[in-house]
Amino acid sequence: MAAFKDSTFVGLGLVPLGLAFGVLVTQSGLAWWWASAFTALIYAGSFEFLLVGLVAAVAPLGAVALTAFLVNIRHVFYTLSFPLHRVSGRLAKAYSTFALTDEAYALTTGEQARSWPGRRILWLQLYMHLYWVGGATAGGLLGSLIPDSVTGLDFALTALFTVLALDAIRDRRDDLPTPVLALLSALVARLLFPGQIMLAAFVLFTAALLTRHLTVRTRARHA
Question: 150 by DSSP, 3-state: which?
Fold first, then answer.
């Protein structure tokens, strides 16, 4: 029940986003059940939107693999602080790794989640997965009934990330340099690596956080 309550406000953002994805699937000429298959078996958020276009265009498998790698490489950096060690059992750890999304990472690494047991983390990820699959399935089934003129559903992802970012800043008011480091990393990546801004920004941000951590720990030892 605690995990269900934790997932509620994120689920409210995932459902309309899933609806938009389901509509996109059907409007791309694919059967409605592809929306359920993509969300249940791939579960990669933004990459799934790209995958619909790649499948519709019959893109080579190599291009699909490269796109998946570039879009999802950010998850490598999530493992630095995601509390997978609290999840018990090989099967549970495997699913928790599979279900590691941006939203799950944001919720499980916040200040309020430091005391959460592994079962709560696992149930939280499962609920968010169900929100995503359910929304996409409903969108696929109702896709033919929703006119193309309806706009705004695709903004749900941006709005959801904005809320998660604001919550993270609010939880760590004494750590304001972190969003500053994130902004500087994005600006430097945009100037120096415009073609790989996402990957470069994550690398720079991770390096900045590690440098700050080592600096603070060294000062604490000297003190």
Answer: coil
Q: Using an 8 Å Cβ cutoff, are 36 and 133 in contact?
A: yes
Phi/psi region, residue 150 (left: phi>0; alpha: psi -120 to 50; beta: rest), is: beta
* Angle, helices 61-72/197-222, rounded to nearest 10 degrees: 30
N- to C-terminal Cα separation, the chain: 44
| φ and ψ at residue 150, rounded to 5 degrees | -70, 125
pLDDT tens, residue by residue, 11-44:
887 888 888 888 888 877 888 898 899 889 888 8
3-state SS string for 87-138: CCCHHHHHHHHHCCCHHHHHHHCCHHHCCCCHHHHHHHHHHHHHHHHHHHHH
